Amino acid sequence: MTSRERVATALAGRQPDRVPFCELGVDRQVAEQILGRPLPPVPNLETNPRSLADEIELAERLGKDNIAYTLRAPVFTEQGSADGQTNYYTDGLIRSEADLDLLALPDPEDDRLYEPVAEWAAGKRDFSLWVVTRLGLFSAILSVGMERFFIGLLERPGFVASVVDRYCDWAATVVERVCALDIDVLASTDDLAGKHGPFFSPTLFHDLVTPRFAAIAGDRMTHGITRPWVLHSDGDLTLLLDDLLSLGIDGLHPNEKGAMDIRAMKRDYGERLCLLGNVDLNLLGLGTPEEVTEEVRGLIRDVGPGGGYIVTSGNSIAHYCRVENVYAMAEAVRRFGAYPLESDAPEE
Length: 348
Known about the structure:
By secondary structure, the chain is of the alpha/beta class. The chain has a single domain, classed as TIM Barrel (Alpha-Beta Barrel). About 40% of the residues lie in helices and about 15% in strands. It is built from 14 helices and 11 strands. The strands form 3 sheets. Strands 1-4-5-8-9-10-11 form a 7-stranded parallel beta sheet. Strands 2-3 form a two-stranded antiparallel ribbon. Helix 11 links the parallel strand 9 and strand 10. Helix 5 crosses helix 6 and helix 13 (about 290-305) packs parallel to helix 14 (about 325-335). About 45% of the residues are buried.
């Protein structure tokens, strides 16, 4: 199978020739070590970090089955930097109705916005091309500021809803336009939960978020998200799973270790969802290659049977991940991921 076929088969819940290995992203500092050369700095956290040629070379060196292009709406926040290279968000800048004029988004009908995606689609070779975006919710949370956003749900619900709607309306057009191109996967990255549960009560999520996400998703056949859809959120999504499944998602990422039990998810939802994840980021940063190998081997053994599983890190390859551990993860997929799996072997 080609990488495209392998990923498509797994996302359809079926068994490919081997378990795919994919990532939403690889941090620039790690990518530079793998490629052996410097890469251009990332101006902000919403832009694509490298060229198609660099992304393909990185995928080849790691044995990844996907390449990922990031196309997300800008967020309006203060930003910090831990080391001069790794940026992070601090407080939002859209703090009241008076700030709404600051919320200027690129024209989603401008063809130039999609020209790079079309170029990547034309040059992706046999890799599975993932477009990484947001459906709007988390962009709104970041731009308003997390504390201000959730207090605003009670004290200024109209203001909060107006920010969410601006982002969701933008995403609806972008998703439609992107899915009309020759991409393979639409990956949305709106964080919805923390380790101890959702940011919202199930009722509030059902009333505020589900209808907006459903409008963006469309009928999944003729408009909206017409490509396989991987939904990413950190944290424990258990209380939101019914709503998320109602949207028609194809894959759930990353089933965060310490928040969700990916093995229980396989047992309870494996026939309805492709599961992606969840190699421990702490292990990738602090462990040994041998420990990483055993982690991946166990995940493939327990989550891989029957298909519908894609190995990824527990989020993305962060700057603190040790390169030797990233290579160990990739090698373990090659070593243990071919079907039939070890766990499929008949007992003697």
